[in-house]
Design brief:
- This protein has about 210 residues and is an alpha/beta fold.
- The chain has a single domain, classed as 3-Layer(aba) Sandwich (Rossmann fold).
- Helix content is about 40%, strand content about 25%.
- It has eight helices and seven strands.
- It has helices spanning about 10-15, 20-40, 50-60, 75-80, 120-130, 140-150, 170-175, 200-205, and strands spanning about 40-45, 65-70, 90, 105-110, 130-140, 180-190, 190-200.
- Strands 3-2-1-4-5-7-6 form a seven-stranded mixed beta sheet, with helices on both faces.
- The longest helix has 21 residues, at about 20-40.
- It is globular and about 45 Å long.
- The protein starts with 8 loop residues before the first helix and ends with a helix.
């Protein structure tokens, strides 16, 4: 099932710490640049929580039609109050209520590291996109190091309690190769790894 965002989103986006604010702003700018690269008009944010990211993107890409899902009913309720324009549905990432090829671009940001079956999730994301998927995951070991150095999760050596998957750049590229997704662009926005991928239609034709 998809992770609940009740512990992290408000802290992440409203933290007054100037370093935290700078890192989040860099992350959002990087996501926006990659979204622009796709020329997407119909976008789904999977694991949208309160909808902070679509709210940011909407200002820069007003032509895009946004929708989203999350498993956390409380986060969606808060999101409806914050962003009443944003249509979001409670659903499981492994069985999403969308037709195949429903979106130009599917976002899955800060989600895969929480999942028991990230492979099933990516397969479902691939089903609902027409062309692009955009992922972000914590880049290890830098994410844990950053946590540890600021005194967070010391007894776990910086690892967040709800992170059960860990990738560095090489291992995430290897993970993506199992899904016929071609990496179009990969960027680092410390301490995150961000990957824009595209359906490899030529490989699908060969396999079929």
């Amino acid at each position: 099932m998809m992770i609940s965002h009740q512990y992290g989103n408000y802290q992440k986006y409203y933290n007054p710490n100037p370093i935290q604010k700078h890192l989040i702003e860099r992350f959002l700018r990087t996501i926006s640049l990659l979204v622009k690269q796709t020329s997407a008009l119909v976008l789904a944010d999977i694991g949208c929580a309160e909808g902070f990211l679509p709210r940011y993107l909407r200002k820069l890409h007003p032509q895009i039609r946004f929708t989203g899902i999350d498993i956390d009913r409380s986060a969606l309720k808060r999101g409806k109050e914050l962003n009443p324009w944003f249509p979001a549905t409670q659903a499981n990432i492994y069985e999403m209520p969308y037709k195949s090829n429903a979106f130009d671009l599917v976002l899955c940001l800060e989600v895969l590291e929480h999942l028991e079956r990230p492979d099933r999730a990516v397969a479902e994301l691939k089903r609902i996109t027409r062309r692009y998927c955009l992922f972000s995951v914590p880049r290890e070991p830098f994410f844990r190091m950053a946590n540890f150095l600021r005194g967070k999760n010391l007894t776990r050596l910086g690892n967040d309690v709800d992170h059960i998957n860990h990738w560095n750049k090489a291992s995430f590229i290897k993970f993506m190769k199992g899904f016929d997704l071609r990496i179009v662009d990969m960027k680092t926005s410390f301490p995150w790894l961000i990957s824009l991928t595209e359906l490899d239609h030529e490989l699908e034709k060969i396999q079929s």
